[in-house]
Structure formats: C-alpha cells, structure tokens
Amino acid sequence: MFIVDSVQDIQDMARGAVLLGTGGGGDPYVGELFVRAQIKNGRYPKILSCDEIPDDAFVLSIAGIGAPSVIVEHLVSEKTLHRILARAEAFYGRRVDALISAEIGGANSMFPLALGAISGIPVLDADGIGRAVPHIEMTTFSIYGCKATPGIVMDDSGNVITIEAVDDRMAEDLCRVVTGAMGAMAFGALYPMTGKQAKSFAVQRTITQTLEIGRAIRTAREDSRDIFESLIDYLNSWDGRTARILFDGKITDVTHDTRDGWHFGRATMTGLQDSTDECVVEIQNEFLVCRLNGKTITIVPDLISILDRESGEPLTGEMLTYGQRVKVLGYSADPMLRRPESLEVLGPRMFGIDEEFQPIESLLASA
Amino acid sequence: MFIVDSVQDIQDMARGAVLLGTGGGGDPYVGELFVRAQIKNGRYPKILSCDEIPDDAFVLSIAGIGAPSVIVEHLVSEKTLHRILARAEAFYGRRVDALISAEIGGANSMFPLALGAISGIPVLDADGIGRAVPHIEMTTFSIYGCKATPGIVMDDSGNVITIEAVDDRMAEDLCRVVTGAMGAMAFGALYPMTGKQAKSFAVQRTITQTLEIGRAIRTAREDSRDIFESLIDYLNSWDGRTARILFDGKITDVTHDTRDGWHFGRATMTGLQDSTDECVVEIQNEFLVCRLNGKTITIVPDLISILDRESGEPLTGEMLTYGQRVKVLGYSADPMLRRPESLEVLGPRMFGIDEEFQPIESLLASA
C-alpha cells in the first residue's frame, strides 16, 4: 500500500503513463491536473496491490472513453466523477471496494486516481493491459475471462446508457457509437470483477511502474545523468523484460490521418550518427511496429515509445512533428500479453499487419 | 374494447397501416404474418380505447427500430418478444398494464399487437403520431410531455442497452447509433407512461382507423365498387378531417437514394387525363410534399399516400417503380399534429423544406 501525497509523484506517474501509452491512450494531462488539485487539498489517492484486497472484493474500472484529441481538451468535473460512482453502485447493487485502471497507458491511468482521491476508494496497483490498446476486447481482463459489461457509459450532460453485450467486441462497438453520439467524450464504468479476478487477470504493479518510469526520467534530468541510460536500467530491472534504445534520430517525415475515430500515421526518422539509417514507426492510435532499414525490430504487443532526445519526455503520436530529434525505445510487453491467447486478440494481424509477433529480444538478437 | 380474432382483420389493419405510413414506417408484412399465426392458434390481441384504462395504469411502447428495408426482412420471434417484456418489467420495476404503438404508420403498428397476442396484455387503440415519422422526438408523446426514455433497446442476439437521455432528440441519436451497431435492426421498449398520459398525449382510435381503412379498400374491391370513392368517403367521415385524391397518373421518373440510414427520393408522375399535368412527390423516408404543376397541394405533417390505381393497395416509397399507374391521396393530419408546438418539431422546415405548413384544405381551396 502507498499513498500518493505529492504533486511530483502524480507528475511522474503521468509522464510514465505517456511512455506506456506507446503514442496512444490520450494525454493524461487533464486528469493529472485534477489529481494534483486534490492532493493540494489533502485528498490523497491510496494505492493497494491486488494481494491486499479480499478475493470477494468488488472491483470496477472507471475510464474516459472517446477520441484522444477530445479527452485531452475535456476537463473532468468532480460532480461527474461522483455521478459515475453513484450510478455504478446503484446499477451493480453494491459498494465499490476498489478501482482499477482498464489501461495504464495514457489518460486512463488518471481516472481511477481522480475518483480514488475524491471518494477515498483505493486504487489497485494494476491495470488491464500494461500499455495502451485501442479496443476493449484487447485487455487482459477480456482475454482471460472478465467481461467489460454489464457496464455504464455516461456523459456529463446527464445521458446514461447501460450496456449488456454478448461479448467484448460488441461492447467495444456499442461504447464507440454511444460515445460518438455523446460528442466523442464519455465516461465508463466497466469490467465489474472480484478481487480474485483482479489478482488473476490484471497486469500487476503498473501504477508503480508509471511512477518509477517518470521518476527515473526526472531525477536523471535533475542530476544531469544520462536520461536514457537511467530509464533503460530501470525498465530492464523488471524481471524477464528487455528495454533497448532502438534508434537515435531526427523525424524527416510524419503523416497524420484521422478517420473513423482512429489516428493513423507513420513517422520516418533519419539517423543522427549515420544519416543513411532510416527508422519507420507505423501508428494506429499507438506505435505498432518499428522498422530499422526495412527490418522489424519491435512489434505490437511489445511496446514502442518515442521520446524527445534532450528532455527525455515521452511523446504521443499527435505530438510528433517534422525536424524533432527523438529516441525510439523498445520494451517487452508483460508476459501475459505474449501468450498465444493474447496474441490472437492483440497480435500484429489484428491491426492489419501481415507479420507474426516476435519478441523484441529475438528481433534484436537477429538484427 | 374489441378482440382481433380474424386473420382478415389483421390483413386489413396492415393495409391501413401502410396507407398511414405515407410511404415510410417500414412494411408491416412480417409483423402481420406473426400476428396471423397467433390468431390461427387462438391467441387474439385485445384492443382497448384509452378511456377504458385507469389513469395510473402503466403503459409502454414496444417498437422495432432500424432501417425499414431491414425490418421488412427480419422475422420477429416469440422468444424475443417475451424477452423484451421481461426485461422491460424488470427495468421499470412494474407490470405492463397496456401496450401502445409509438407509430401506427407501417411496421410498428404490428409489434404491440404481436406482443399483445402472446402475452395477453391489451393494446391501446391509439398511437404516438397517427402516421409515420422518422424521429423519436416527432411523436405527440414527445411533443406533449412524455419522454421516450428511460427505455431499453435490445437485439435478438442478447445485447441489451438501457438509455436515459436528457431529451428525445438525444434519445433518437442514441437509439439510431445503437441500432446501427446491432446490425440495423433492434427492438425498443420506450415511452413509459401512465394511462392518463396515454389519454392526453396519444393520437386516439388509430388502430380502428387502420382496420377500417384496410376494410374499406378490400370490401370495395370485393364488391366491385370504386375503391377510391369508398376510401375517401371513409376518411372524410372522421370529424374535421379532409381526404382528397390529389392526382391520377403514371410514374414517369423515380429516384431512390439511401444514405445515413434514410431513404431519399422523388417520384414524378404524369397525368392520365392530361399528360401535361405533372405531380411530384418528395420522399424522405415518408412522402413529405406533393406538388401539382409546381404548386404545393399537400405538405407534412398532413398525409400523402400513393396507391396502385387498379388494386387500391397503398405503396411504400421503396415500392415505387417507373411506369406504375397510381393515385395520390392527401389527408389532413390529426388536429394534434397541426398545433404550433407540433409544427415546430414536425413541420416542413424540420425536413429541410423551406415552406410553411398549410392545411390540405386551404391548399386545395386556393389551387
């Protein structure tokens, strides 16, 4: 258990959440501002590890749903957060014992912390994916047996929808169209689960990870140590996981295309050491695949992040611009995401990429 | 009170419902088949007038929602109807005392009769518009103060949505997108109301009207009397209402265009007596305006129907084809629909027609 009682911790967590967002998931900035204001008022989010709650605890995900660009501009209000909780408890017919993030990468790292701060309900140090993904059915919750619905989607005008979908692919479709009708931004109470399910189906210790990623970057910057060395050292300290700087270069071309609520794009970078080296990152909300001189070196669900090469600040897909000097980071996904049942749902082919998943460590060994 | 115990009555009702559908509302044929099968098995829908139920009775609309072309092809199942009722009673927390059609014109004339037949719940001799309209917020229920939600939308695969919208325009948007995600065909339980509201806000005696319209056409045909004379005589027998044959001609041009789930079109007819006479009917799901040689002679919310000139069978917009010989009928809407508060919601400008509503009787007097 730990208490988030410092504004700096929330800033670090938001930075870490952008890195784990792998370019997508929405900018957590608005949520971060909200939680910072709570901490200044002495309302501190309490974080529990999953093994600190009983098996029969009632755990719920609270999330913002919508186009990332809209989430960023949308201020969440305390009233709306209280309404979600009240509605959810009435709908499920029981008190919420703990909150959990559906997706730690990006904006949805902050929603449970925001509600946790104002309600006093603890937030679990875990989430449903350990990164960002564009669809509900791609979470480990969905993949390993905890359905997203029955759930609630509401906006802050007073429209409330409850959804009971036959599967999470349908839940995704319904949430998406309802959110569209609500003006591209809504709030969801989804994935009702037991404490036991949270222990089994969630990716563990991911709030800790956002905090420590953000802190590694900040402290290295403050102490004038090498930011990327500190970051890679930290990430490699996680058991069985591999982090590597994949490329050091300058963005020479970047395309952005928003259609059907998705952000499609491609960033092309040229090497700073050797200008004949070319690195291409394909974007579909998230950074999906990184190719060095035409050869794949990291691919979804392994994580790709792009960071400003001076400040070490992680960047979202929308932030990338021509001429930026960046480093590309590759990081192995949590082992849960690499199992065959996960790859069936969130492997490269689910994004239209005609390649098999290969772990970053194998790709780099053969590069 | 009357009992619908003859297959012929249901056939007549369906015919009358197509006429009141003014080209839209979906073909009631599939629902008609279902109710005919019930009647053959001795399960008869019971029709009550609104003044036969207590003021505090709980009245609910059951409707098919979706693209008319899909409704036509979609067989409703007894299981699905039972599920709607069970879900609705659980959701509202009380037994349904009576069913009411939201829209008597077209397919939704039959859904309450179908559920009434299998459940024994009486159906009110009334509906929410007395014709067909494309949007939820255009019903007299909505206009005069009975909201469509809280309500339920479900499909027959097991997906269930509850909706609580801030207004009926939003309810319309949410129903439309949810139905789209469900494959363009869903079932709704909407407009929870009291017996008192049904007495005040519904258009009265419209089931009787469908039956008697269909019967007037059929019996004239059987007795070799003039079908249109019989029909006009019947319609004019309604207090304060005017029916007239607007045109007798041949379809010389017809356009159909389906976009955003709407059917847009235009039928152009040439006179059979005088081939220089031209009649144009503009279609937007329903027949909206009829112009004779460029002059408007009937306009929404007054009713325009197009009938086969030999059989007297009313036609939907999708049925119109080049070369068909038809008669165009104009009929004044129920007085409730002509009040200023109604015209604000379902007058010509709400369909993008830059004209004021004028009653058919004035338009014809000045023609």
How would you describe what is shown here?
The structure is a homodimer of 367-residue chains. In chain A, the strands form two sheets. In chain A, strands 1, 2, 3, 4, 5, 6, 7, 8 and 9 form a nine-stranded mixed beta sheet that branches. In chain A, strands 14-13-12-11-10-17-15-16 form an eight-stranded antiparallel beta sheet. The first copy, chain A, is globular and about 60 Å long. Chain A has 367 residues and is α+β, with helices and mostly antiparallel strands. Chain A contains twelve helices and 17 strands. In chain A, helix 1 packs antiparallel against helix 2 and helix 9 runs antiparallel to helix 10. Chain A has two domains: 203 residues, CV3147-like fold (3-Layer(aba) Sandwich); 124 residues, CV3147-like (Beta Barrel). The model of chain A has no long low-confidence stretch (mean pLDDT 94). The interface between A and B is medium-sized, with 18 and 18 residues. Chains A, B: This is DUF917 domain-containing protein. Chains A, B: Pfam families: S-Me-THD_C, S-Me-THD_N. Chains A, B: It comes from Sphingosinicella microcystinivorans.
Portion in strands of chain A: 25-35%
Shape of chain A: globular
| Radius of gyration of chain A over all CA atoms, rounded | 19 Å
**Quaternary status:** homodimer
Mean pLDDT of chain A: 94
Overall number of structural domains of chain A: 2
Spell out the CATH superfamily of the largest domain in chain A.
CV3147-like domain
How many H/I helical runs of chain A? 12
Structural class computed from helices and strand pairing of chain A: alpha+beta
Catalogue the unreliable spans of chain A.
Answer: none
**Biggest sheet overview of chain A:** 9 strands, mixed
Query: What is the CATH topology assignment of the largest domain in chain A?
Result: CV3147-like fold
CATH top level class name of the largest domain in chain A: Alpha Beta
Pattern of helices and strands of chain A: EHHEEHHEHEHEEHEHEHHEEEEEEEEHH
* Biggest protein-protein contact in the assembly: A-B, 18 and 18 residues
Task: Give the strand tally of chain A.
Answer: 17
